[in-house]
């Protein structure tokens, strides 16, 4: 079950994510088992990852981002252009004010 975050916590995570590099890219093939495993490993170790979605259609991109979040039991913290930030508590603690 995904963790729920307040808007203030999401804002903090978006600020932290600005300094991160993209962890992986979702390409033409869409969400594959390899993409899921790669992002899941990143979330387990880092808790917060950025993913680039190469879909041109904005609505389809938002749907893919939502599908990723639900599949990975993660929270979609933010989206800028083709890049989304996903958070799931993992090994690396991220300090957030409540």
Distance between the termini: 20 Å
- Report the average pLDDT across residues: 90
Side by side, the strands of the main sheet go 1-2-4-3
Count of beta strands: 4
Shape: globular
Please provide the ordered H/E string of secondary-structure elements: HEHEHEE
Assess the beta-strand content as a share of residues. Answer: 15-25%
Give the number of helices.
3
- Main sheet attributes: strand count, strand direction, barrel closure: 4 strands, mixed
How large, in whole angstroms, is the Cα Rg? 12 Å
* pLDDT < 50 runs, ≥5 residues: none
Q: Portion of residues in helices?
A: 25-40%
Structural class: alpha+beta
What does this entry look like structurally?
By secondary structure, this protein is of the alpha+beta class. It is 40% helix and 22% strand. It is built from three helices and four strands; from the N terminus they run αβαβαββ. The longest helix is centred in the middle third of the chain and has 14 residues, at 33-46. The chain starts with 6 loop residues before the first helix and ends in an 11-residue tail after the last strand. The model has no long low-confidence stretch (mean pLDDT 90).
């Amino acid at each position: 079950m995904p963790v729920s975050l307040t808007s203030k916590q999401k804002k903090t995570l978006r600020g932290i994510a600005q300094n991160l590099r993209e962890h992986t890219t979702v390409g033409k093939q869409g969400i594959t088992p390899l993409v899921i495993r790669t992002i899941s490993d990143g979330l387990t170790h880092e808790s917060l990852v950025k993913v680039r979605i190469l879909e041109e259609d904005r609505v389809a991109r938002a749907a893919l981002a939502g599908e990723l979040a639900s599949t990975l039991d993660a929270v979609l913290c933010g989206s800028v252009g083709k890049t989304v930030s996903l958070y799931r508590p993992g090994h690396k603690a991220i300090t957030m004010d409540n």
